[in-house]
Structures are given as C-alpha cells and as structure tokens.
Design a protein that fits this description.
- The protein is mostly helical.
- The chain has a domain of 80 residues.
- The protein contains 6 helices and no strands.
- α1 packs antiparallel against α2, α1 packs across α4 and α2 runs antiparallel to α3.
- It is elongated, with a radius of gyration of 16 Å.
- The model has no long low-confidence stretch (mean pLDDT 81).
Length: 121
C-alpha cells in the first residue's frame, strides 16, 4: 500500500467534489479542477509504479497551488497557506551546509522556518 498515492487519489476525489460545487457555472474553472485532479492521479500512478523520480519531476512542473496541495496530502499536514520551499531529501544535507556556511541558520530559525522532508513512499 502506498500512503502517498492513496492520499493523492483522495485529494483528486475531494478536489472534483469541491470544484463541482464551487464552479458549477464556470466551465473554465471546472476544466482547471479536472486538470488538477488528473495531475494528482498521475503522480499517484507514478508512485504506485515505484517511479518516484518521475513523480517528483511531475510535481515540480505542476502549477503552484495544486503542487502545494499535493505536498500537503503526501505529508498529511497543512502548510497553513504559508510560503513553502520544498527541498528533495537528497539535497537537504547540502542545503544545510550552505545555510551554515553563509551564517543564515540563526536567521532562518528566528523566522520559524520548519523543514518537512518530502517522502514519496
């Protein structure tokens, strides 16, 4: 069972349901809702097939709002509308090194920056 894929499939269903109500009279918005939901399902399918690198690449090319909603679904926690910087787990160590080397760690901590590693399994 792939929890991230299941969460994305549920997000696609919820998105379609919400969109049908909110945008019942706006075909353009309904189409965008359908497109976003199809993107969620595509990422779920890639994850289920074990093609995590392709899933990450697909997420990277999605529009900002649906991409952030996908990350929220995968992580199981909301980002509360805050700006989110997503860093692949493989790059996190190097990013931390750069932050420390340039003296930014204290500033980031003072801003309350939190790290949510993206787990695609």
């Amino acid at each position: 069972m792939n929890n991230a894929a299941n969460a994305l499939r549920q997000l696609a269903t919820d998105n379609l349901t919400e969109g049908a109500t909110a945008w019942a009279d706006d075909e353009d918005m309904l189409e965008m809702t359908r497109s976003d939901s199809a993107d969620f399902v595509k990422v779920a399918e890639l994850l289920e097939a074990g093609r995590n690198d392709e899933a990450e690449a697909y997420l990277d090319h999605m529009d900002t709002s649906p991409r952030e909603r996908a990350y929220e679904a995968i992580q199981g926690k909301p980002f509360d509308g805050e700006e989110v910087l997503v860093i692949k787990k493989a790059d996190l160590g190097r990013i931390r090194e750069l932050v420390k080397a340039h003296g930014l760690l204290d500033e980031l901590q003072a801003l309350g920056v939190e790290v949510y590693p993206l787990e695609l399994s």
